[in-house]
Amino acid sequence: MTRPPPSARTSTLRFRKPLVVGLVAVLAAIVVALGHPLLKPSSDPTATPGQDSSPFLPAPSLSDRPPSHAPHRESRGALDEADGVVADGVTVLDDEVPAVANLDAELLDALRRAAQNAADDGVTFTVNSGWRSAAYQKELLRKAVAQHGSEAEAARWVATATTSPHVSGDAVDIGPDRATDWLSEHGSAYGLCRIYRNEPWHFELRTDAADRGCPRMYADPTQDPRMRQ
């Protein structure tokens, strides 16, 4: 093949050099604009070359992430343990819990004697609800009305703050089912009686039950004369 004259080769090299330089400059500008991680030093000293959790953009630092929400705290004035709210696992032996400590002394004594004997049968009494403040009872009634659709229907399950035996410390709601079954069978010996057929967890003290047995149950609280005061 015939080689081009020197002047022709020189012209070609002069033309290619600015073109190559221009392309390199354009590519560099694009890489910088995209913030390619290859141009940034790794912030992980344990990272090995070629490893990157994100092949396109580096993971945001902690300061770049939105702050996590703090654990929810009840607003001032909200119901809490002091109103009789009960946490899971509370038993009739927990004197430091107001829902237990504020129960009628005779009722609490009967519960503890029964619980001691029930433990021999492998049964533990937990307190789902005991004493309640008037504010707590009002809130429960409000929720019951919203759930059941009317005050009349709600009254089958929740009493008013002025009539509820929970507010006076004369009633306790026991769980789990094994405990309520045990009390239904043996509770009268301790004076502990179910009062309402629709609430197998609700027990009150009837001191003469050991001799006479528990009184006949009401269908629900609306049949209880005490609720009509």
UniProtKB/TrEMBL annotation:
Region of interest: Disordered: 42-82
InterPro entries to which the protein is assigned, alphabetical: DD-CPase-like, VanY-like_core_dom, Zn_M74/Hedgehog-like
Coiled coil: none
Cross-referenced Pfam families: VanY (PF02557)
Record field: compositional bias (Polar residues): 43-54
Domain D-alanyl-D-alanine carboxypeptidase-like core: 102-197
Protein name: M15 family metallopeptidase
Species per Swiss-Prot/TrEMBL record: Streptomyces rubiginosohelvolus
